Amino acid sequence: MVPPKLFPIHRLPFLAIEETFKAMDPIEIINFSVISKRTRTVAKLMNFYSKYSIHLSVKNSTLKVGLYRTNEMVSCIYGITSNEKKIGKIKEKEKDGCIERKVYNYSKNPLEEWKQLCKHVLDIFKKQTIDDLSMQMDALVDQNVSLIDFLKANVKSVDECCLYQLDKKNNVDENFAYLLDNLKINKELCSHLHVKNDNFDKKIPKSLRELRIYNSHWIGYEKLMEFVLQEMDRNGKSFEFKYLELDRRELDRFRELVLYDIPHEVVDGGVERNLKIFQNINIEISGGIDIRRIDGKTATFFLKYSVFMMSVH
Amino acid sequence: MTSPASSSEVKYLIESSEGNTFDVSGAALRQSNTFNAMFLNIGADGPIPFTDYNEATLKKVFEYCEHSVNEENYSGPKHQDDLSKWDLNFFNEMDQKMFIDVINASNFLDIERLTSYCCERIARMLRGKNTQEMIKVITLPTAEELEAKQKVEEKKAAAAKKVAEKAAETAEKTETLEELPVQQLVQTTRNKLTRKYLSFSNE
Question: How far is B51 from chain A (nearest CA, A)?
């Protein structure tokens, strides 16, 4: 007679408990770990958590903690919301063989509860870096600073960061500046923010793999030159940078103001090439300007869909 | 009868905690990584003692191994819905105690397929449950049990401390006793000499 009621899970050998945990999804692991101090300790002992990546999301309606398996077969999202309609709601959808499970918890103070959940998850899954942070900067404007402070205090860095705002009238310049000053972003930065200050003077994080800044009027040619030089010639440091995307700027002007003393080659407009942009998407481009990076790779600057892009290949 | 495991026809004798022995085929036993590591290359001269587990448990474990001898190589956990009727019967006819014993034995014998299916069944009990629902499914040591355990440990520690103190005290006493005769000797000698001196002076 199995499964029996009241199963004494603590009587199993550790490896069997670990096998059981492997068969559970992260939401179940989190639910198990909050039963008692002992279950928390047991949950923390598992050795396979490196297979999960942690995604945090802050937006108007819901704050989320997502755990994705690296094979992306199952992703679990724990949402905390003040929307009573979503209490206890479990959503599950399957797409291309991948299952996404969302569980919603109601809270009168979602931000506080989200912080507690983040702390708990980071502790249980032994994570010091967030794989993906997505933040709606005009969702909790008054709380942004405390939220960034919380992240700064609890994680070493963020691998991929996406920032956006829903109402472009909202001014989130200060919060954006505070985030760039206080969070270390390792791989990707994508901003859809509407920076109001033309002289917004913040340094772009170094050693990124991908940078996409929409509404990038605040990145003048001087800053762009600084960035290009930094990423093209890093004095023996490893090159990670693969892709840049900014608002439209004229290639001739860019060449005149940024590349004037950098050896480069203007490729004829009749020459068509396939280049990788973000998320490994290939697009066909015509012409462009090539420069050689000191590791031998070529960076091509080009205009496509009225966007200024650079792809390293 | 035991012999080196070159042929799948070979039978091995297994000894349980009761001291009983029974036959298991080499093919079935080879599903146990523990057996493979210990006996596969060298063979066994007598019954293989798995004496931490009772006969019923071991028979159940090897019943599973015998059944899955001809199945494809194990390639990760199978979804419970994909289990065969035989597998389902095998699990369903066990009571909780037997189920736990089988997991323990399977874990010791390192039979990946069986351990994994058993653990998948436990995970299934917890599937889709929130914390409150989980509490209704699993038992954990209660606060009283933990307290009692802590008390026992404290008592043990106190007893050990007492023993250590006694031992130290005894050692100290021994040292004093060893010193005593010398002191007494000195004192006695001194007394005798004093008496002698006094008697001399009286004379």
Answer: 17
